[in-house]
Design goal:
Elements lengths: L11 E4 L1 H7 L7 H14 L3 E5 L5 H13 L4 E7 L2 H10 L6 E8 L2 H8 L3 H16 L5 E6 L6 H14 L3 E6 L6 H14 L7 E6 L6 H10 L4 E4 L13 H10 L1 H4 L10 H12 L20 H9 L27 H10 L9 H15 L4 H11 L8 E9 L7 E8 L2 E8 L3 H12 L6 E10 L6 E10 L2 E9 L2 H30 L3
Parallel strand pairs: 1-2, 1-8, 2-3, 3-4, 4-5, 5-6, 6-7, 7-8
Antiparallel strand pairs: 9-10, 10-11, 12-13, 13-14
Helix pairs in contact: 2-3, 2-12, 3-4, 6-7, 7-8, 8-9, 15-16, 17-18
Bound molecules: 3-methyl-2-oxobutanoic acid (KIV) and zinc ion.
């Protein structure tokens, strides 16, 4: 592998949306959703996709395996503690990857070593060296991370980095795990490593900054200025606590200030806005409107002076173009009179490839929506893309009929017919509202007493009374949380669709667990 450090221009983008980002979500993503995000990241041109932590659960193992099989152009990476069983799980999950990487880590700060790991510094070095050597049995692409490096004594950090490289690590990552450092300090740590570790030129130096003080991007930037050549980041900056370095911010900083910094990435930045919307939707994490690069207001101008300036010359108030992150202005009205080509054209403008959707299916859904709403907007169309893809004809649970009544002075009730593995089951129930009644009917129909609704959020996609209702639910099932989204012009229907979305994922999870226990039992 070519080592890219201080004198190389290219900064490697390592995305950990599916690992650090996903571990911070209130409910885990399904395998299909993870694959959708991974394929988006591949299209964005991310160099390395950290797809998960295989040993952590059978679901995570299977997702990493699936992503490793499907993704061809990005390196696919799995995380492991510095333990043989974790590394073996990574090796197994990544077996079919075109470009696999094993990422192993252990904490190095005094606070973690003495309080969490309760080991001596020498023992930690030994564990790290053993882990790296073990990972090298599976692949020659091994990353080692010194967890909490930002609070690790620099002498010990130099010793760890040196030992990891000698053991065979090809990338050494320096995380500011708790987002504690400030840019000059963090850049200084990287500079010292370059000055003091004799074999530093034999590995890529990476950084992984958390955003507890809002400095993750600034710290990552200081690190690349000091010679680091891999940045670990996530779409929309999602991740543990206040999140990680945001991919779109570091990428657009490098691109917009390329002349000053002299650094580039392999990203197709025009895919940024689409990746951001996909992650926000599937992870149920709204993006604040004033968020840099991907917020709804990032390219809108409010004051008259600014509007006048931009109209005269765009760069008066825009340091990058909206097109450079994939935002295109729309001037076509989409109504039930619009033909397929208009929908196809608009989807193309929004950055979708023909292979991203089934035009017949989207067009049918579009017509139904246009009949109900009149005008269909970009966000409606994208919602159809995101959620039509989840609607599998062969889904285990499908909604065939729904009737709900509510009003003043009557008891809300609902009748629901579900197709369960092809067999139709009808149930009726009452509740404290029509959604509650429909949920009670579904739970009765499938004997689903184990399902507990933890959170139910209703949102509108678009403006006005005819906007689409989007319901996001979090359901607890067998000590795990599942997130589901449903979309419809009718609130009850949206709620029911969200529950059915979850039911199909719990069904999948049960199948994975069953498969795993059969494998363990040698069946
Ligand atoms: O924040 C952190 O230190 C991590 C490591 C596992 C890289 O996420
Ligand atoms: Zn992290």
């Amino acid at each position: 592998m070519m080592i890219q450090n201080a004198d190389t221009k290219n900064v490697i983008i390592f995305d950990t949306t599916l690992r650090d980002g996903e571990q911070a979500l209130p409910a885990s993503l399904s395998m299909r959703e993870k694959l959708q995000i991974a394929l988006m990241l591949e299209r964005l041109g991310v160099d390395i996709i950290e797809a998960g932590f295989p040993v952590s659960s059978p679901g995570d193992f299977e997702s990493v395996k699936l992503i490793a099989t499907e993704v061809k152009n990005s390196t696919v990476c799995g995380l492991s503690r510095a333990m043989e069983k974790d590394i073996d799980a990574c090796g197994e999950a990544l077996k079919h990857a075109t470009n696999p990487r094993i990422h192993t880590f252990i904490a190095t700060s005094d606070i973690h070593v003495s309080n969490k790991l309760r080991k001596s510094q020498d023992e930690i070095v030994e564990m790290a060296v053993h882990a790296v050597k073990h990972a090298r049995k599976y692949t020659d692409n091994v990353e080692f991370s010194c967890e909490d490096a930002g609070r690790t004594h620099i002498d010990y950090l130099c010793r760890m980095v040196d030992a990891a490289i000698k053991a065979g690590a090809t990338t050494v990552n320096i995380p500011d795990t708790v987002g504690y450092t400030i840019p000059s300090e963090f850049g200084g740590i990287i500079e010292q490593l370059f000055n003091r570790v004799p074999n530093i030129d034999q590995a890529i130096i990476s950084v992984h900054c958390h955003n507890d003080l809002g400095l993750a991007v600034a710290n990552s930037l200081a690190a690349v200025q000091a010679g680091a050549r891999q940045v670990e980041c996530t779409i929309n900056g999602i991740g543990e606590r206040a999140g990680n370095c945001s991919l779109e911010e570091i990428a657009m900083t490098l691109r917009t200030r390329e002349q000053l910094l002299g650094l580039t990435t392999n990203l197709n930045t025009q895919e940024i806005s689409k990746a951001s919307r996909l992650v926000s939707q599937l992870c149920n994490m709204p993006v604040q409107s004033n968020k840099a690069i991907v917020g709804a207001n990032a390219f809108s101008h409010s004051s008259g002076i600014h509007q006048d300036g931009v109209l005269k010359q765009q760069n008066t108030y825009e340091i990058m173009t909206p097109e450079s992150v994939g935002i295109n202005k729309n001037n076509l009205n989409m109504t039930s009179r619009s033909g397929r080509h208009v929908i196809k054209h608009r989807l193309h403008e929004l950055g979708y490839l023909d292979s991203d959707y089934d035009l017949d299916q989207i067009y049918n859904s579009f017509l139904k929506l246009a009949d109900k709403k009149g005008q269909v907007f970009d966000y409606d169309l994208e919602a159809l893309i995101f959620f039509d893809q989840q609607k599998h004809e062969d889904a285990y649970y499908k909604l065939t009929y729904l009737h709900a009544t509510s009003g003043q002075k009557i008891i809300p009730s609902a009748t629901v017919t579900l197709s369960v593995d092809g067999e139709e089951i009808t149930q009726a129930a009452t509740g404290n509202g029509p959604v509650d009644a429909a949920y009670n009917a579904i739970i009765k129909a499938i004997d689903g007493d184990e399902l507990k609704v933890v959170d139910f959020k209703l949102d509108s996609k678009g403006e006005g009374a005819d906007a689409l209702a989007q319901v996001s639910v979090i359901i607890e099932y067998r000590h795990r949380r599942f997130h589901g989204i449903g979309l419809a012009t009718d609130i009850v229907e949206a709620g029911v669709k969200a529950l059915i979305f979850v039911l199909n994922n719990t069904h999948l999870a049960d199948q994975i667990d069953e498969h795993k226990s059969q494998r363990l039992a040698g069946v």
